[in-house]
Write a structure and sequence with these properties.
The structure holds three protein chains of three kinds. By secondary structure, chain A is mainly alpha-helical. Chain A has 16 helices and two strands. In chain A, a hairpin with a 2-residue loop joins β1 and β2. The longest helix of chain A is centred in the N-terminal third of the chain and has 35 residues. Chain B folds into two domains: 181 residues, Rossmann fold; 82 residues, no CATH class. In chain B, 49% of the residues are buried. Chains A and C meet through α1, β1, β2, α7 and α14 of A and α2, α3, α4, β1 and α9 of C.
Chain lengths: 442, 280, 304
């Protein structure tokens, strides 16, 4: 600045909105500058074993300008949103509006999911990616029980996924168990793990629980990495048998009956991909059905009540610990199922697949989708799986974006993308006007 | 309706014997003994900080009293030592259900859902830990129907039927108080402990509360233990009043006796003014 | 015997670092009643800044050890404090009065964001740095095993003790400390008394970050290698230390840190290095189960 601006003694509440916004944006830019200097402006690079400091001042400048402009634009947008919100609130109808379009959207998605392998037949990549999306959908629905419904922050969800995967990996390679036999066993085992972890820790406050589950996830991973005799260590478990079609393997071999020979089809590697897709679709749909039914049962209503107010639950005679345990066990079981499928699909598992960032991804799916919303989880999974597929740049920035999205969603829309909550029970009877002599006087 | 209201009118329902609660150096309740009869309204009054809410917390298992005992004479389960029970047992087994001074509803759930949650134990039992419920068995459906009927009954009685499907957290203060009482009633309590139910109510609402309390005790034979500052409520509905000050019981008796008790006047008005009043 | 004493020295040093980070956890917990999940990452940010500053000083030819250490500390504390302030402003303040879960999730998001931001801007590779303060004392030799006490180890332990004293004084004796404790008990009442609650909370985050910054610089100087991922495990361990000592208690945090450091060091030396982290997690779960108020903490009474 060359000429100092005249100092104005204007009370803040009279300050023109524009000036206030500019001041605010300058503040944000300044803080961004300070945050950016050590991270963006300067960086160290390895030059033959010795570090050297390099500078990136243009990047820093771009970052600061972007933050300034971004903040300025955001201010306008926020004011606009606030105005609109106030308008909507005034118009809000007395009874919570139903959202029939959500139901229709769900049905349309389901239809699309069913015909997807046919519509994209021959495009193995699409079906494969869709399978990945569905694994995340299932994991998201499982974690949604714990985080979205019961309100318990589980940062080690991937541990249950790992237990499920290793259960199938080890049982199938050592004892020749099949996919379908392992599924219930793995479910029971992961549910027991959930109870084992939950029993001592569910009495804890929310943030303690979060960090204990985080620790639990790490313990499981450490054991998998270090207990080589049991789990194969960092190399993991290899050549896990793939699931068969009611006993018919998907293989090109001709000496035994295979899927292709039985149905007189030409062998194609796509058959298995498509079959796996339908298996996970079926598992996911069962999960959905199971969870939506549970939500309307006493136990599901109790999960939500515990999320809302534990003390009130106790005062109403509810055993809060047991209710939380049931949520934990069921969430764990669903994660275990997903793990079994994952192992069967990959044919190879290693501790690499079960790191904290995987837990974080699943949590991001639940948070973004709207805690407690089944459809939201689908959208968030599609988004989070497809984003990195768009390009290498995106996959590098994936976790960065997840982290930022988690903060932004909590700040602006804590309910997630789809925040609508459908009541589990409605009176369903036309509200009869209370006669004057009834009611409290009765 | 599941459990028919047990008529415990006239019998001693709750027997508090030399209850003391200390927090570090502070004695919140000092050697308090009190009998609460069934089917009647007993009020606990006293200035702020007299230990009233602490007393409730000791009754309902949220605090463990330092010494003393709290016996609930349950017509079915016999005498129960409330001070040794976890808080959820107090409501589930002993039938002592409370409300909170700062209302604790499930704000994002509808009014009806709030009342259904209160019947969790019965419903969970009927759903055979969700198995019967998952497969839609008849027994569970019946229990669910019964729970809805009970909820509807109390909603009607407390004039909440029209707002049954609205989120509880968005409703007005007075309405939320009524919802909390309705929710507690859905647990089928023998003894209903209300912590300042009239706080924040306008005169008309508090007159309605009077009628409700009398109705509950006379028609449904609920024992009611009431903490209240609003003397219009306390003096009109109470059968028996206990006055606490700094954790000590300073008086006990009928509303008339309490109104004329010099100790009570001193506690409320202070030493000097009480003396002036006596002199006058 | 020699091995034992060496492990004791190493464990105490490690524990002092954990204690420093744990101090930040405990202070922030004290005021907002919540764990700052991004605290471990703040510590990591500081270590990365320390690497940059030390490299820069090296290339400028500033070789005097006390001078370069002081400059590094000052620069790291300054920038890390800005990060601490920003974390509170972005991930915590807008969520005050929101649900229980919301700030936890936003803090997790912040932790993920910081870690990946550093990975992207500074690279994923381990950053080695020449020893700033090499050498030390050889205490004694027994059966061919020489027990070393490095200068950096002395520096770290002394710094921790010093900072513990300073911060204990700050919290118990100064006006800021009183404001901070008042906010902890009743935020609304505190603001009614004319105390700027926002500023007090911000300042607490800044101070917590400054402590993490000191820990980050110390670790850089001690180990000579850091990378973007060191915050995660150090964060959990320091948190365990804070819980073990009793969340909210400053001496407890350092005590807990020392115990965790000793356990890790002995576990690694005598039991199994691969599972040394398991010991920490095990302790965390056991303490939370049987003594959630920790060694020096006050029991928490549930408010009804």
């Amino acid at each position: 600045m060359t000429t100092p601006a005249p100092i104005q003694f204007t009370p803040t509440h009279q300050m023109p909105a524009m000036l206030a916004r500019a001041k605010d944006a300058v503040g944000v830019a300044l803080v961004s500058l300070l945050l950016g200097i050590p991270m963006i402006g300067l960086h160290t690079v390895d030059q033959g074993g010795v570090l050297a400091v390099m500078t990136r001042w243009p990047w820093l400048l771009a970052f600061v300008v972007a933050m300034f402009v971004g903040r300025f634009v955001m201010q306008f947008a926020l004011d606009h949103v606030k105005l609109n919100k106030a308008k909507r609130e005034r118009k809000r109808p007395e009874v919570a509006a139903r959202r029939p379009w959500l139901t229709w959207l769900g049905r349309a998605l389901l239809g699309f999911a069913v015909v997807l392998p046919i519509a994209f037949s021959g495009n193995r990549y699409v079906v494969d990616t869709a399978t990945t999306v569905l694994i995340y959908v299932m994991l998201g629905w499982g974690l949604n029980v714990v985080v979205g419904l019961a309100g318990l922050l589980d940062l080690g969800y991937v541990a249950f996924y790992a237990v499920g995967a290793y259960t199938y990996g080890l049982l199938s390679t050592h004892f020749g168990w099949g996919f379908w036999e392992t599924l219930p066993v793995a479910g029971a085992l992961t549910a027991s793990f959930g109870i084992l972890l939950g029993w001592p820790t569910l009495r804890l406050r929310g943030d303690y629980l979060a960090i204990v589950t985080l620790g639990f996830g790490e313990i499981i991973r450490l054991i998998l990495v270090n207990w080589t005799d049991f789990s194969g260590g960092p190399n993991g478990v290899t050549s896990i048998p793939r699931p068969t079609f009611f006993g018919l393997p998907f293989s090109p071999s001709t000496d035994e009956t295979t899927f292709s020979s039985f149905f007189h089809l030409d062998y194609s590697a796509d058959h298995r991909v498509i079959f796996l897709y339908y298996v996970i679709l079926a598992l996911a749909l069962l999960t959905n059905l199971f969870v939506s039914r549970l939500r309307k049962l006493p136990v599901g209503i109790a999960w939500e009540a515990v999320r809302e107010d534990e003390v009130a639950c106790k005062a109403l005679g509810m055993n809060v610990t047991n209710i939380k345990l049931s949520a934990f066990a069921i969430g764990a079981m669903l994660g275990g199922f997903a793990g079994v499928f994952f192992a069967a699909r990959q044919g190879f598992i290693s501790p690499e697949s079960f790191v904290f960032s995987e837990s974080a991804t699943i949590l991001a799916i639940v948070v973004l989708g709207g805690m407690g919303s089944q459809l939201g989880v689908v959208f968030a999974s599609v988004l989070l799986v497809l984003l990195p597929e768009l390009g290498r740049d995106f996959s590098e920035y994936r976790m960065l974006l997840f982290g930022a999205a988690m903060i932004l969603i909590m700040v602006w829309r804590p309910g997630g993308l789809i925040a609508h909550r459908e009541p589990t029970v409605k009176l369903g009877r036309a509200p009869s006007p209370v006669p004057a002599n009834q009611g409290a006087q009765a | 309706m599941s459990a028919p209201t047990m008529n415990t009118a006239g019998q001693t329902l709750l027997e508090v014997d030399s209850l003391t609660m200390r927090f570090g150096g502070l004695t919140a309740i000092n050697n308090l003994s009190l009998n609460v009869p069934g089917g009647k309204i007993t009020s606990i009054i006293g200035p702020n900080g007299a230990g009233k809410t602490t007393f409730f917390n000791c009754l309902t298992g949220f605090y463990k009293p330092t010494t003393g005992s709290v016996r609930m004479h349950h017509p079915e389960h016999g005498p129960l030592a409330l001070e040794q029970m976890p808080s959820y047992h107090v409501a589930r087994k002993a039938g002592v259900v409370r409300t909170f001074q700062n209302i604790r509803l499930f704000p994002n759930m509808t009014v009806l859902e709030n009342l259904i949650v209160a019947q969790h134990n019965a419903l969970q039992h009927a759903s055979r830990f969700s198995l019967a419920g998952l497969f839609g068995r008849a027994g569970y459906k019946q229990a669910r129907e019964a729970a809805l009927t009970k909820a509807e009954m109390w909603l009607t009685r407390l004039k909440l039927l029209d707002i049954a499907d609205l989120a509880a957290g968005n409703l007005s203060y007075g309405t939320q108080r009524r919802i909390e009482i309705a929710r507690a009633l859905c647990v089928d309590p023998l003894l209903l402990c209300l912590d300042e139910p009239a706080a924040g109510l306008n005169p008309r609402e508090s007159a309605e509360l009077n009628e409700l309390l009398l109705y509950l005790s006379r028609e449904h034979h609920k024992g009611i233990l009431l903490i209240e500052h609003d003397m219009n409520v306390v003096m009109r509905v109470s059968d028996h009043i206990c006055v606490l000050n700094f954790g000590n019981k300073i008086a006990e008796g009928t509303p008339e006796q309490i109104q004329n008790d010099p100790n009570v006047i001193k506690a409320y008005l202070g030493e000097d003014e009480a003396d002036e009043k006596e002199a006058a | 015997m020699g091995q034992l004493i060496q492990q004791l020295i190493n464990g105490l040093t490690l524990g002092a670092v954990y204690g420093l980070i744990a101090l930040g956890y405990t202070m922030v917990y004290g005021i907002i009643g919540m764990i700052n999940f991004a605290h471990g990452d703040i510590y990591m940010v500081s270590a990365i800044i320390a690497v940059t500053v030390l490299t820069l000083l090296g290339s400028l030819g500033i070789a005097a050890i006390p001078l370069s250490l002081l400059i590094t500390l000052a620069v790291a504390i300054f920038f890390t404090a800005v990060y601490g302030w920003a974390v509170e402003r972005v991930a915590y303040r807008p969520l005050r009065g929101s649900t229980r879960l919301a700030p936890l999730i936003s803090a997790i998001g912040m932790s993920i964001f910081l870690q990946n931001m550093v990975q992207l801007t500074q690279g994923a590779r381990v950053k080695p740095i020449a020893a700033l303060l090499p050498g030390g004392f050889e205490l004694f030799t027994q059966n061919g095993f020489t027990v070393h006490l490095a200068y950096t180890q002395i520096l770290i332990v002394i710094t921790t003790v010093l900072l513990l004293c300073v911060f204990s004084y700050l919290i118990t004796r100064t006006s800021f400390g009183r404001q901070q404790r008042a906010c902890e008990q009743d935020r609304t009442m505190t603001s009614l008394l004319g105390i700027n609650v926002d500023r007090t909370i911000s300042l607490t985050f800044v101070l917590g970050a400054a402590l993490a910054a000191v820990a980050g610089v110390m670790v850089t100087v001690y180990y000579g290698v850091v990378d973007f991922s060191i915050g995660f495990v150090a964060g959990i361990k320091a948190f365990t230390a804070a819980v073990l000592g009793g969340v909210g208690s400053l001496p407890g945090a350092v005590l807990g840190g020392l115990i965790i450091g000793l356990i890790e060091s002995f576990w690694g030396a005598y039991l199994s290095p691969a599972y040394s982290d398991l010991g920490t997690f095990g302790i965390l779960i056991l303490v939370l189960m049987f003594r959630p108020s920790g060694l020096l903490g006050r029991p928490e009474v549930e408010k009804v």
